[in-house]
Amino acid sequence: MSLPPGFLDELRNRTSLAHVVGRKVIWDTRKSNQGKGDMWSPCPFHQEKTASFHVDDRKGFYYCFGCHAKGDAISFVRETENVSFMEAIDILAREAGMQVPKADPQEQQRAEKRASLADVMEMAVRFYRTQLQGGAAQTAREYLTGRGLKAKALERFEIGFAPDGRRALFEHLAAKGVEEKAIIDAGLAALPDDGGPAYDRFRNRIVFPIRDARGRCIAFGGRAMAANARAKYLNSPETVLFDKGRSLYNHGPAREAAGKGAALIVAEGYMDVIALVEAGFDGAVAPLGTAITENQLQLLWRIAPEPVIALDGDKAGLRAAMRVMDLALPMLEAGRSLRFCLMPEGKDPDDLLRAEGAGAMRRLLERAEPMVRLLWRRETEDKVFDSPERRAALDKTLREATGRIRDPDLRRHYDEELKRLKWDLFAPASRRTPVNRRRGGFGRLAKIQPSPALRNSRLAVSAESIEDEMREAVILATILRTPAVLDHYEGVVETLALANETHARLRDAILSCANDAGAEFMERVESIVGGETLESFFAQPHLAVTPAVRHAGNPEMARMCLAEELAKLETRRGLAQEVREASEDVHAGHDEHLVWRLSQATEARNRADRQQMDDNTEYDTSPNGAKLNRDERSAFDELIRDINFSRTRGR
Fold first, then answer.
1. Last residue of some domain: 192, 207, 242?
2. How many domains does the chain have?
3. Region Disordered: which residues (predicted)?
4. Quick one: which of 162, 284, 317, 456 could link to 202 by a disulfide (CB 3.0–4.6 Å)?
5. Average of per-residue pLDDT across 623-635
């Protein structure tokens, strides 16, 4: 079967060779540079241990320096899938969302027509550029100068001017032998509804040529000079050359710059792109007068794995960013995402560059936020979550959003990051963790530090005793051995004050892995805290005799153990708090509530003692259980002496 020439070009343009090859190989991450499309792996065509198989994703070719296999995506599918040429075409076309055209004897004629129209477009480029130098373009030149565009920029982007005459371009092309139909088919002229002669589509406008990735002029964009023009910006209509939903302004040069390490920046319009490039940001592109489409996202990811969306700093720009995010969510996968750089209020990239320079733009780009932060911002900004119902509604909204992510691993990472952000929002102020927004880091749950007064008191030192640490260890070890109980106790564990850094690290690791409490739970925790830390932790003698730790995977036993240990910790720490606050009242001279406080503290002590006598010691991990130890009793007796001394002096 004969395929149209343009079909194979389009297929190769839409197909990522690295993605196709990646299904068959494991990339060598030390040699590969995904951002540049420079990928290496052991060769799939012969047995080897070294990475001698090279894929140039931008050029669409592979080569093995060992066996000398080479080709493109089509040949790779043919060789690895053992299929014919047309079968390989069919496989790749389905993946690219294209339909293989049926045999068409006229396709060659259409290909020739496209080539002919491309020639007509180049003639129009030259005409418009010449017109920009004429007297009729004085206002246009002043406008461009006022926007900071110098002669070098005008030449680089081939900016021109369409004169105000109704048939200026049409007559120029006709004089060179171009047929009327070709001028109309190229989108340069249109026929009026009343049946009159064709007229130029662009009149009294600054003109920006739009080129495809191969450098062919496929359309124009025009900026009106007249204040009362029907449209400020006007693009060519869709033609056999131009599909605006599959095209990007400055596509070819940006792809080349990104291949050399430049950031791929997506701005809103022509002037933003030109200003960015002139300021040194060569990887700038723009959609063409419309919201970013799914096909344009695919084009962007062919250029770079993480484009930066830099939209205007107004409500419309923010809405546009949200639309891009919603469009991208189902398309995300590992190594393919977006970052968002929102301009200051009321400014676009061109405004910022002219007002503050390239340094200000660079700083904004460095602080571009990952997409998960934009999602969080949309669902929480200017909202109040002062009730369980509102918080539950937030949970539901976030679950629905991340549920659209098809990649399960990526979806899990989104859920983990959103859980951390919820923790920062809802946790008590003393427990909140600063988030490193510039680097996009997750941060780490902060360990609570006691106040100096509490830390220096004898009772506080007792509260951070070995006994408390032992109970904390039992709680953490029980969850590590039976992670299924974490669903019920996750909130309690999040707010649990821990006595040492190791316990805090283990708690943080447990929470970060809470969404995947399955067979690989311990392995994931170990990857965070390290094998030596876990081994040392479980080597504690009292854990070896704890039933819930010995009988790993028993949810009922684990729940009983956790309930008891958490209750005992709460009892002891609650008592410590009562005594501490009563002591503060004594020294402050506020003793009107001391009797009540002492009665509460005494009752708490008695409850703890009674609980110890009634306890089933199968789950007890310390000799004293919940009873006050010697230091606590001493502190309590000292408090009584302070009260008596205070009253004696009062008399």
1. 242
2. 4
3. 602-633
4. 162
5. 46
